[in-house]
Specification:
By secondary structure, this protein is α/β, with parallel strands linked by helices. It is 27% helix and 22% strand. It is an enzyme of class 1 (oxidoreductase).
């Protein structure tokens, strides 16, 4: 994968720059890279989560323009990551509480051995060409994300596997022989990383024409004008913005801190919604003891806010 040009940065839409990134590469020295990377991020005031493993790096970070620039430059200074691609958006508030660099077995967990996107992968499709592909009646469009993500946004006509985790995706494919009924498979995810493994898996399973959206939904929402878009809804993001819409503007979803599901303005008025305690998605699956515990946590958050502090559990 080659590095794409980045649009000029500006602070319209928020003072904090958010960078989503991933790169697959053979990286056996990943353990020794954790400490210097985390130290630099903290020194630059950058927050977020970065995952590093034998197979590469993945994550999202936020900070000042200068801080993000310096961290990305350091990552790209490593010979394994010179071609690293990132996607930018902005946030009005710092969307992360802390900085974490974690050592992992996989940078995106699919649970299938011998899947290497550097050796086999689907065909990349630029956002400008995506509408034509997914409008082709000979194409099956598959959303590789999880159910709480697809609940708030999906491409028109896409198949939703309704998976709880990405680990369920391989079994879903094997249990759906109808996927062989059309010659083309088009796949997409938030930023592109899940499709690297998902398309590799599909190729491994004997599917010939497998495509995926280059840069994911985020790149599509950034580049494709809303009036031409085939995207319906908002895109879930893994930070405190919760969702983004066309032009990568912050969405209006909130997060239920009991179950981590995104909730709409309408769901905020549901009788089962209680801030930090429950929502219509999780009320029936939690006990009253659970909710009492969440209320205590929410009380501590409120008290910290009064003191001008930010509670770690918020």
């Amino acid at each position: 994968m080659t590095q794409i040009d980045q649009a000029p940065r500006h602070e319209e839409g928020g003072a904090f720059l958010v960078a989503a990134l991933y790169h697959f590469a053979k990286f056996p020295r990943f353990e020794s890279f954790r400490e210097p990377l985390e130290s630099l991020c903290k020194a630059e005031g950058v927050k977020g989560t970065l995952l590093i493993a034998h197979e590469g790096i993945n994550g999202t970070i936020a900070g000042t323009d200068a801080g993000i620039t310096n961290v990305l430059a350091y990552i790209r200074s490593q010979p394994e990551f010179t071609a690293l691609v990132h996607k930018e958006s902005r946030a009005s508030k710092m969307p992360f509480l802390r900085m974490k660099v974690r050592l992992k077995k996989e940078i995106v967990t699919m649970g299938v051995e011998d899947i290497d996107p550097n050796e086999i992968v689907g065909t990349y499709v630029d956002p400008k060409d995506w509408n034509e592909l997914i409008s082709d009646p000979e194409t099956i469009v598959i959303d590789t994300r999880n159910d709480y993500e697809t609940a708030i946004g999906i491409f028109r006509g896409a198949v939703d596997p309704n998976t709880k985790t990405f680990r369920e995706f391989p079994d879903w494919v094997k249990n759906n022989p109808g996927l062989h009924n059309k010659p083309k498979i088009a796949m997409y995810c938030t930023g592109g990383i899940r499709c690297e493994k998902a398309t590799a898996f599909m190729k491994q399973q004997g599917f010939d024409e497998v495509y995926h959206l280059k840069g994911g939904i985020l790149k599509y929402l950034e580049e494709v004008p809303e009036e031409q878009s085939l995207w319906d809804g908002a895109c879930f993001v893994f930070d405190e913005r919760v969702s983004v819409t066309h032009g990568l503007k912050e969405g209006n979803h909130k997060l239920c801190h009991a179950c981590r599901n995104p909730i709409t303005a309408e769901e905020l008025t549901h009788p089962h919604y209680e801030e930090g305690v429950s929502c219509s998605h999780c009320y029936e699956s939690r006990t009253e003891a659970d909710r009492d515990r969440y209320r205590q946590r929410q009380l501590q958050i409120a008290l910290a806010k009064k003191r001008g502090e930010r509670h770690i559990g918020s």
